[in-house]
Amino acid sequence: MREQLEALKKEALEQAIQAESEKDVQAVRVAYLGKKGPITEVLRGMGKLTAEERPIIGALANEVRDEIKTNLDHRSEVLEKEALEKQLQSESIDVTLPGRPSSQGTIHPLSAVVTEIEDIFLGLGFSIGEGPEIETDYYNFEALNLPKDHPARDMQDSFYITDELLLRTQTSPVQARTMEKHEGIGPVKIIVPGKVFRRDDDDATHSHQFMQTEGLYVDKNVRMSDLKGILESFAKQFFGIDRSIRLRPSFFPFTEPSVEIDVSCGICSGSGCRICKQSGWIEVLGAGMIHPRVLEMSGFDSNEYSGFAFGMGVERLAMLKYDIDDIRQFYTNDARFLTQFKSV
Ligand code: DAH
Predict the structure, then answer these.
(1) Do 159 and 84 fall into the same domain?
(2) More confident residue, 30 or 225
(3) pLDDT tens, residue by residue, 301-323
(4) In terms of residue numbers, what domain contains 19?
(5) CA 288–ligand 1 middle distance (angstroms)
(6) How many domains does the chain have?
(7) What is the tens place of the pLDDT at every residue in 101-160?
(8) C-alpha 286 to ligand 1 mean position (Å)
């Protein structure tokens, strides 16, 4: 029996060392130390032994059982430690690795320019108005002194939806809409940034959809000098303090007199270069004193009230300010172009 116990011990210890997982250890434990295991069996057969042998074999059996148990516990500990180390290694974080770059969007240059224009005019006492992009023929043309068959309608080739509805060709209809709301009582002092649409073929300077900002100031005693002062202040804030403006006579059906406004060329400071076609000046917007008929049609007494209006192309202003040579850049969503305006 002694040899049998020694052999069992040897076998169990060998298996304990070979155990590769806690599950293996548990299997060895059950096989050798369990209720149905060989050591329990030896202890059960003790009755057959002589009185002298019984305590000796009993002590040996307990010793063998304890030794197997100690070895298995030890093996468990080693395996647990190994597993933890492996896990720690696989989960380790290298804090010296460079971070993953996250790509943040940028404000679209047109939005940035609109915000800048709004800021400047808010500072000059204007508020911001708006109107519909699908407009009636009345507001887009008639209320602006452009009756049906007026030849000046040809200046703005239009997208008609029905005979009476079209995509607005200009932000000017918001002039009439806003004046109507004021029911003949001034002052009205707004700017209106917004999309407009024309049946133009797209090229470097034309787009069938673009943005304008309309301006309107109606009050008692508004004069041409007010128009000049406001727009000079705008030009200096938008383009730079060293820039100046000039007014040139022009024609718009809704203003009388009408002017076109040029800003001095920022490249040559007025002495003449390729950009300003040697003139020293660059055309930036249309403006004028509101035609008395337009005031009257929108409910203002033209003997009591006067006003000025202006309209500018936002893309054109952005192109001049940021030296962009093709209007289509604003609408083709090329990230290489858009990301250049990160800091704007
Ligand atoms: N609506 C004109 C256009 O689209 C621009 C314009 C000119 C607006 C003179 C005005 C103005 O308010 O007074 O060409």
Answers:
(1) no
(2) 225
(3) 999 999 999 999 999 999 999 98
(4) 2-90
(5) 8
(6) 2
(7) 888 888 999 999 999 999 999 999 999 999 999 999 999 999 999 999 888 787 778 999
(8) 5
Q: What percent of the chain has pLDDT over 70?
A: 99
CA of 18 to the centre of ligand 1 (A): 92
Same domain for 57 and 203?
A: no
- Same domain assignment for residues 62 and 127: no
- CATH code at position 154: 3.30.930.10
Region of poorest pLDDT, from 28-42, 163-177, 238-252: 28-42
Q: Cα–Cα–Cα angle for 193, 198, 204, nearest 5°?
A: 90
Q: Is residue 35 part of a domain?
A: yes
> Residue whose CA is closest, atom 5 of ligand 1?
311
Whether pLDDT at 222 is above 90: yes
On the CB side of 235, CA atoms within 13 Å amount to: 25
Do 128 and 255 fall into the same domain?
A: yes
CB 121 within 8 A of CB 215: yes
Query: What b/e readout covers 211-237, taking b as 16+ CB neighbours within 10 angstroms?
Result: bbbbbbbbeeebeeebbbebbbebbbb
52 and 186 co-located in one domain: no
Pick from 126, 129, 118: nearest CA to 189: 126
Determine which residue's CA is closest to atom 3 belonging to ligand 1. Answer: 170
d(CA 244, CA 238): 11
Residues 74 and 115 in one domain: no
Give pLDDT tens digits for 72-99: 889 999 889 988 988 888 888 888 999 8
Q: Is residue 20 part of a domain?
A: yes
Pocket (CB within 6 angstroms of ligand 1): 170, 172, 214, 252, 255, 286-288, 309-311
Residues 75 and 160 in one domain: no
* 38 vs 311: which has the higher pLDDT: 311
| pLDDT attached to residue 123 | 98
- Whole-number mean pLDDT of the chain? 92
Q: How far is the CA of 259 from the centre of ligand 1 (A)?
A: 10
Is 199 contained in some domain?
yes
Q: Whose CA is nearest to atom 2 of ligand 1?
A: 311
DSSP notation for 241-280: TT--EEEEEEEETTEEEEEEEEEE-TTTTTS--TTTTTSS
